[in-house]
């Protein structure tokens, strides 16, 4: 068929409105008589045509599949929508195999669209991808082995020094010597932490990290974590508060060591970057699916906080907010990246909310198992009454039946929530943050059984109140109000 004069792609389908122009796949359009009206850049390159493919017949490209004669052209017998192996011919009559699918255009039903990929190129690319994948796996393996060897070699002398220092510390020593030995001991401990971090990081990066879930006593674990930090926290003159929701069962199934690792990292950071005020650790049960529960942890501090611009750097590897911080406080910047990877392995996510000089809230969620017969310890109505922190005695009687009040969605519950919320916002307006926190506790309990999105807002509201952030409180208040 003769090529039509002055016919270009853009005459028929302006490139701006036709997004397939830059597709890697070959895309051709032709009409019911087989006349090509569009060919994208890939077609033009592969078939070595310029703009002169439009106006030609589709049989020029696929002579083995379509007849050239206009009268004979018949798409009736062509299996539309099926991936088929065809042979595509270049302008210079050389050819190559393609995988092609032809469909009827939905926008212009009188048009057919042919999408094709070069089979040889696809196979070549597949082989290349496989080769690169193998090369990178090999490189990763070499790197992991190297890191494992180096960390082992480092650990041996560090532990040698540490052992000797501890032995010396047991002797009668003058004040100066003891002080120096304590510094060496602390340096060795820090060095061991860094070595462990590098080893964990390398294993996580190589995808070789396996969780080891087992049944353990959740509150005992928290007490252990608290014992790890309480001395350093109180030495700095800081307060420490820990709250654990009674809805979390006694025993849970999870990787205790790794949960401790995440908590240790967050609490060490909180302690490191806070010089006055308080550190809090709170844990809630936020969801349950069959025998799995979601635990939500909040570690808050009143420390130096983090700039908005620096927050997204936090969870990257080897990232510290700035050089002055690493000089002053030390560390490798791996801790939070490891926490993120561990939390994600445990099915959750880690986030931070913070403002410069106004403290930080690190939150993370994980999914853990509940042992057989270890149903969540749900509160009895009496316990509910005792544990609800009503701001004033008459509030408790407001709702009538306490069980009903607590059940999210009941009329009593929603009424109580609305009342408590309006009291809370009044306290916030009057900058009575302490009382606002009390109302917040009531709201938290009234939303304990609420859907996840409501609970999230309630938690964010709680954090905003703790940080006395007026704008955030009003925004979350509005968001929560919309649900009621
Ligand atoms: P490292 O392993 O060196 O402690 P992390 O990944 O734990 O590093 O933390 C990275 C950086 O994040 C810290 O150097 C600090 O700048 C910032 N950061 C982490 N936690 C806090 C916090 N609670 N308050 C302020 N800054 C923090």
Walk me through the structure.
By secondary structure, the chain is α+β, with helices and mostly antiparallel strands. Helix content is 48%, strand content 18%. It has helices at residues 9-12, 41-46, 58-61, 119-169, 175-205, 218-235, 256-272, 308-311, 323-329, 335-345, 381-387, 393-398, 402-406, 411-429, 433-446, 452-466, 470-483, and strands at residues 26-31, 36-39, 84-89, 95-104, 111-118, 214-217, 239-244, 251-254, 278-289, 292-301, 350-354, 360-369. Helix 14 (411-429) packs antiparallel against helix 15. It is extended and about 100 Å long. It starts with 8 loop residues before the first helix and ends with a helix. Adenosine-5'-diphosphate binds next to helix 7 and helix 10.
Summarize the structure.
The protein contains 17 helices and twelve strands. The protein is an alpha+beta fold and 484 residues long.
What characteristics describe this protein?
disordered N terminus; binds adenosine-5'-diphosphate; 18% strand; 48% helix; five-stranded mixed sheet; alpha+beta; five-stranded antiparallel sheet; 484 residues; 17 helices; single chain
Query: What small molecules are bound in this structure?
Result: adenosine-5'-diphosphate
Largest sheet: 5 strands, antiparallel
Provide the structure class. alpha+beta
Instruction: Give the number of DSSP strands.
Output: 12
Instruction: Name the average pLDDT.
Output: 84
Total helical segments: 17
Q: N-to-C SSE series? A: HEEHHEEEHHEHEEHEEHHHEEHHHHHHH
Rg value: 33 Å
Task: State the share of residues found in helices, binned by percent.
Answer: 40-55%
Shape: extended
- Residue stretches low in confidence (pLDDT < 50, at least 5 long) are 1-12, 376-399
- Strand-residue proportion: 15-25%
Distance between the termini: 70 Å
Q: Walk across the major sheet and give the strand order.
A: 2-1-5-4-3
């Amino acid at each position: 068929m003769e090529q039509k004069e002055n016919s270009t792609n853009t005459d028929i389908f302006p490139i701006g409105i036709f997004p397939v122009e830059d597709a890697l796949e070959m895309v051709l359009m032709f009409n019911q008589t087989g006349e090509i009206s569009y060919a994208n850049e890939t077609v033009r390159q592969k078939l070595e045509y310029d703009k002169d493919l439009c106006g030609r017949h589709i049989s020029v490209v696929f002579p083995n599949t379509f007849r050239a004669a206009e009268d004979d052209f018949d798409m009736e017998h062509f299996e539309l929508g099926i991936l088929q192996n065809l042979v595509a011919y270049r302008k210079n009559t050389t050819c190559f195999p393609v995988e092609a699918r032809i469909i009827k255009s939905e926008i212009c039903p009188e048009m057919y669209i042919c999408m094709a990929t070069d089979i040889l190129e696809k196979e070549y690319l597949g082989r290349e991808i496989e080769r690169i994948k193998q090369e990178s796996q090999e490189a990763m393996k070499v790197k992991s082995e190297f890191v494992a060897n180096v960390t082992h070699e480092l650990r041996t002398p560090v532990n040698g020094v540490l052992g000797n220092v501890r032995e010396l510390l047991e002797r009668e020593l003058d004040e100066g010597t003891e002080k120096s030995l304590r510094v060496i001991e602390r340096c060795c401990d820090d060095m061991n932490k860094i070595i462990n971090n590098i080893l964990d990081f390398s294993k996580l990066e190589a995808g070789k990290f396996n969780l080891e879930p087992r049944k353990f006593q959740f509150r005992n674990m928290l007490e252990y974590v608290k014992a790890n930090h309480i001395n350093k926290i109180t030495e700095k003159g800081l307060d420490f508060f820990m709250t654990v929701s009674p809805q979390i069962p006694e025993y849970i199934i999870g990787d205790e060591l790794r949960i401790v690792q995440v908590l240790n990292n967050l609490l060490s950071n909180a302690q490191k970057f806070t010089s006055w005020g308080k550190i809090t650790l709170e844990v809630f049960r936020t969801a349950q699916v069959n025998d799995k529960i979601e635990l939500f942890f909040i570690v808050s501090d009143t420390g130096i906080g983090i700039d908005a611009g620096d927050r997204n750097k936090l969870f990257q590897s080897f990232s510290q907010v700035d050089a002055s911080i690493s000089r002053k406080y030390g560390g490798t910047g791996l801790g939070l990246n490891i926490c993120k990877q561990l939390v994600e392995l445990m099915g959750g996510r880690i986030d931070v909310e913070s403002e410069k000089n106004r403290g930080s809230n690190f939150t993370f969620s994980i999914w853990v198992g509940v042992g057989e017969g270890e149903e969540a310890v749900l509160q009895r109505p009496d316990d509910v009454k005792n544990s609800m922190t009503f701001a004033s005695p008459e509030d408790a009687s407001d709702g009538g039946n306490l069980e009903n009040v607590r059940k999210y969605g009941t009329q009593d519950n929603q009424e109580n929530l609305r009342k408590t919320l309006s009291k809370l916002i009044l306290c916030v307006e009057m900058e009575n943050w302490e009382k606002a926190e009390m109302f917040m506790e009531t709201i938290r309990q009234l939303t304990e059984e609420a859907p996840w999105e409501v609970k999230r807002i309630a938690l964010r509201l709680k954090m905003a109140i703790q940080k006395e952030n007026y704008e955030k409180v009003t925004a979350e208040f509005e968001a929560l109000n919309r649900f009621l």
